[in-house]
Amino acid sequence: MITRTVSKNPRTTRGDLVNDLQRAGTKVTKATISNTLRRQGLKSCSARRVPLLKPVHVQARLKFAREHLDDPEEDWENAIWSDETKIELFGKNSTRRVWRRKNAELHPKNTIPTVKHGGGNIMLWGCFSAKGPGRLIRVKERMNGAMYREILSDNLLPSARTLKMKRGWVFQHDNDPKHTARATKEWLRKKHFKVLEWPSQSPDLNPIENLWRELKVHVAQRQPQNITALEEICMEEWAKIPAT
Predict the structure, then answer these.
(1) In degrees rounded to 5, what are phi and psi of residue 129?
(2) Among 126, 150, 161, 164, which residue carries the largest CB count within 10 Å?
(3) Half-sphere exposure (Cβ direction) of 34: Cα atoms closer than 13 Å
């Protein structure tokens, strides 16, 4: 009964099971329930957070996958991927491992200083292709559609030229409202940019997510102490990322 119940409803708690069994005339402890489920290969885990998907989102994602399933590698090499990200001065990006003795976890040499709200952060826009990183810029104000178009105007085409993209290259960005605004779509059309259709509520398929991770790890290792240094180090480490 225990295994059948949690298989049907994984969110059932041990307390729920104790009460259900007690009503059925069987008295068990929470430890007994844990041991029983563990023997069946079941253990309590934190539920993963995933995008809330409506049927239309599921169909759009499936359509995207099917349309690109057999695309040759050359097609993906001809794409410029872009996104925005936030990098905190102090915070979860500053995780590091240390060698220490028992009970020495609070020694200053074994700690990383943190402050509330991360001590400040900067917002970055960047792009890259299979040929290497494109431009990376700091977004100093709250971004709106007009600012986003200005960023693209100043940085997208220069990035394509620097990366020596082939004729007919494809631009990728997600479905952020600034990206899909009518004025932005019209601007892209007038500039004759080919845009990769991207499904709404898509998982993070954008490979730039891996590049952001790479950048944040290297920035954290240098331990910037203020926002100015954070920006400078971001630019330096981005420039060091090899095309490979």
Answers:
(1) -140, -175
(2) 126
(3) 6
Q: Which among 215, 236, 221, 229 has a CA at the least distance from the CA of 120?
A: 229
In what side-by-side order are the strands of the sheet with 121-129?
Answer: 132-139, 121-129, 79-88, 170-172, 194-195
Show the tokens assigned to 244.
């490979």
Full pLDDT tens readout for the chain, 244 residues: 788 887 888 888 888 888 888 888 888 898 988 888 888 888 887 777 766 778 888 888 889 889 999 999 999 999 999 999 999 987 554 455 666 777 777 777 767 666 555 568 999 999 999 999 999 999 998 899 999 999 999 999 999 999 999 999 999 999 999 999 999 999 999 999 999 998 877 766 789 999 999 999 999 989 898 999 999 999 999 999 998 8
Q: What is the pTM of this model?
A: 0.72
